User: What shape does this take?
Amino acid sequence: MATIRRRGDSWQAQVRRHGYAPKTRTFRVKSDALTWARKTEIEIETGDLRPDQRCKSNLTLGELIERYVAEITVGKRGSNPETYRLRRFLSHPICKRRFKELSERDFAIYRDQRLKQVSPSSVKRELATVHNCFEVARTEWGVAPRVNPLSGLRLPVPSDQRDRRLQPGELDRILTAASATRTKHLSKIILFAIETGMRRGEIVSIRWRDVDLQRRSVRVTQTKNGHPRVIPLSKAAIALLTVQNGSCDGSEARVFPITGNALRLAWERVKQRAGIEDLRFHDLRHEAISRFFEKGLSVPEVASISGHRDLRMLQRYAHARNEEILRKFDRD
Assistant: This one.
């Protein structure tokens, strides 16, 4: 089956067929991608393209994971964190065993061992990815057992919900540390995150064509849940973009020309310089959403900005400060 998808300014064509290794090529023009995909399908149908012998071999779990990273993960929007997660998983002894011999008990043992080392949410993400790897191998590659060994496995329930907010003075320390780095735009990105509640990946992906300064809005197309949304911008956010617009190279240019990984590393350095340990970049989103509620926005209004489709999930971000509550108590 052929899949044609847009990848930036190019088109990626991928042909998958049971018993054959997936074939992938990238073209500048969509019609070329369609032509190549059809030609590849004809080669499979006529027997000109031989089946992949790896599909019939007794691969180890590690080899299965390596193939998944190379052929599936690479095409995902969140490929970097998933690649890192799977590369780390590959160092575990379970990956040296033949995957067809692995049972639910083997992964239960792995789960219990990992829970002693990392948080339940980390273990759940790892096993969910491995589960999907087995599903792809079973349904598309034809090399896995009929029953996914992780299908009945009880995954840990994350209990590490965060309510971390910026403490007095922390933002000033962070901005001071950010201004001393060589990473351009870092201070503006941090402030923009607090003003909009946007995720790290969303911020680095927006282009000037997505920004409407007059209507004070930005359209976010690359979202976690796949649903684009339009975010209204505060005056402070508009001021940041107005200054940033001075270095604009056209509508296709990114507003903040930095990669997600570079931003992650820069954030870690800034935290260290500022002497702040327990603060993630994602906590800035938490801070922003909590501030939205404190300003009096309703749940539907905040959801339209944050992109939450399950309003119950939004409640975990609504942590009001005690001082703000007391101030409202004292209004009368």
Notes: Strands lie at 2-7, 10-17, 20-27, 211-212, 217-220, 229-232.
